[in-house]
Structure formats: C-alpha cells, structure tokens
Write a structure and sequence with these properties.
Structural class: mainly beta
Largest sheet: 6 strands, mixed
Protein name: BPL/LPL catalytic domain-containing protein
GO molecular function: biotin--[biotin carboxyl-carrier protein] ligase activity
Organism: Smittium simulii
Helix content: 10-25%
Shape: globular
Number of helices: 2
Number of domains: 2
Distance between the termini: 45 Å
Number of strands: 10
InterPro entries: aa-tRNA-synth_II/BPL/LPL, BPL_LPL_catalytic
Length: 155
C-alpha cells in the first residue's frame, strides 16, 4: 500500500514520518497545472504534471519515500537518479525535435527543442540557421505563448 492521497483538484500528497515527532504528516509530492487560452472560437489547454523526485524540504520526494520504505521494511530499493529520469524522458518524449519556437529575447531566433539539460533539467533549444546555436530555456523568467509559438521574458 502506497501512502498517497490526492488533494482536490490538483495536488498529490504523501504521508511521511520524516519529522521530529516521527508522526504522520502530509507533504506535497507533486501536482498538475492547467492553463487555458481562448482565441476566437478555439480553446487551447496546456496541461502539465510534476512529481518531486529528489528535492528536499519543505516538500516530499519519491527518493525520500524510498528511503522511508527501505528503513521500515529492511529493503534496498534503489533511489531514482537524474540520469534515469533524463533517459526516460529522452526515450518517451515524442515531440523532441518537432517543437519549433521563436526566441523573442534572442533577436527572434527560430529554434527547435532538442533535449533536456543533464545539469539542471532545462529545455535545450537549437537554432534552425546554419550556426546551430544552443540555448537553455529556463522555466522561471520565460513565458511560452502557445498561440504564436513565441518564448519571451516574463513581464
């Protein structure tokens, strides 16, 4: 039995005992975010989900739950590494190389998404021109306008 609970409508919590009193507490493990845009008679929904894998306080992570489970049950389930996550994403992401966007803050350079950084998890984009210049697209500080395929600095 997994110690998980859903906090309506979009958060996933786990029951953790990693505190000074060793008492059960709820900690956020992940969640879902939905953004919607309307344009004339079209509605565009962007749905994203995330699971905390290796981060620490104040939330919980899959690796923290693995540690707690191993301690409680005298098992040796291995933690999930960043390399395993990136390999999974690379193998199962169908749109790598297909998403074409324009970078507003870089002279409107047209780029395609080619992967995910192994250093920090940011998207890596490559210029479509002959320079093949690479960019790391940081989630904080950039906004993605899906209706026009434009990435620019948040205002």
């Amino acid at each position: 039995k997994l110690p998980l609970a859903i906090k309506w409508p979009n958060d996933l919590y786990c029951i953790s005992k990693e505190n000074a009193e060793n008492s059960p507490t709820l900690k956020k493990l992940g969640g879902t975010l939905v953004n919607s845009f309307s344009n004339n008679d079209h509605i565009l929904l962007i749905i994203g989900t995330g699971i905390n894998v290796a981060n620490s306080l104040p939330t919980a992570s899959i690796n923290q739950l693995i540690d707690e489970y191993n301690f409680k049950n005298s098992t040796r389930i291995p933690k999930i590494s960043m390399e395993e996550i990136l390999a999974f994403l690379k193998n199962y992401t169908i749109n790598t190389g297909y998403i074409l966007v324009t970078l507003k803050n870089h002279d409107y350079d047209k780029v395609k998404i080619i992967g995910i950084s192994t250093q920090n998890g940011y998207l890596i984009a490559e210029s479509l021109d002959s320079t093949k210049k690479k960019y790391e697209l940081h989630p904080n500080g950039n906004s993605f306008d899906m209706t026009s395929g434009l990435i620019g600095q948040k205002s």
